UniProtKB/TrEMBL annotation:
Residues 122-132 have a biased composition (Basic and acidic residues). The lineage of its organism: Eukaryota, Metazoa, Chordata, Craniata, Vertebrata. InterPro entries: PH-like_domain (IPR052212). Residues 1-42, 93-132 are annotated as: Disordered. This is Uncharacterized protein. Residues 27-37 have a biased composition (Low complexity). It comes from the Eukaryota.
Length: 183
């Protein structure tokens, strides 16, 4: 009878259990011995499978909760260690970045300083070059003036002027060569 079953039992009741519960013999169904054995094995399997669906006991649940809490704590500790390691790496990277930034700034200042020195050195060189150019032009101008004066001078002074012009020409040519080399 279906009403005699307790509420904790699940699934359909095997037929041989129903027959025994109703007072009939398990063999009275008219089945052969092998059929009844197969039916029993099937019922046992169903009961075993049904028992797997039964909820675990409260002590097992508490133990599982404790295990999960312990795993949670272990993971929490692992995460804290990982965070600490990452923070340490970040701090190291930041300090290296700071050092490299300082080196870069120092190098940039040195480049600017050398650039200023180069500009002033170039400017001084240009000024010296211009001064030398004026001096060479002045020498050429004086030489040409003296050269024009030779024909108008008396014979006695011409030899002396020619000798002076020769010396000035050599000095002027040396100055022109030096100027051209410098340029």
């Amino acid at each position: 009878m279906e009403s005699t079953r307790s509420p904790w039992q699940r699934g359909p009741r095997p037929p041989w259990i129903t027959r025994v519960a109703e007072g009939h013999s398990p063999a009275s169904s008219g089945r052969s011995q092998t059929q009844r054995a197969a039916a029993r094995r099937s019922c046992v399997k169903k009961l075993e499978l049904g028992s797997l669906r039964v909820l675990p006991s409260s002590s097992m649940l508490r133990q599982r909760i404790t295990e999960i809490d312990q795993q949670k704590e272990e993971l929490k500790i692992e995460l804290q260690l990982e965070i600490a390691l990452l923070q340490g790496e970040l701090q190291t990277e930041n300090s290296q970045l700071h050092r490299h930034t300082q080196k870069l700034q120092a190098l940039q200042q040195e480049v600017r300083r050398k650039g200023k020195h180069r500009k002033t050195d170039r400017q001084k060189e240009r000024e010296s070059l211009e001064e030398e150019r004026r001096r060479v032009e002045e020498l050429k101008g004086r030489f040409e003036e003296k050269e024009k004066l030779i024909p108008s001078q008396p014979e006695s002074q011409r030899e002396l002027l020619t000798l002076q012009l020769k010396q000035e020409r050599e000095a002027m040519e040396a100055a022109v060569r030096a100027f051209e080399d410098w340029e």
